[in-house]
């Protein structure tokens, strides 16, 4: 819940009052965003190693 509030401005009650399908979709988007951030960090680490 903290993630949704901090990054998207979605209050916990807003999230839980949404239909189940919407909550599942938001959770899937959350997972996808995390995967993308991890991939970016991996690529940055690879580039840093190549530079050094």
UniProtKB/TrEMBL annotation:
Protein name: Uncharacterized protein
Organism in which the protein naturally occurs: Clostridium argentinense CDC 2741
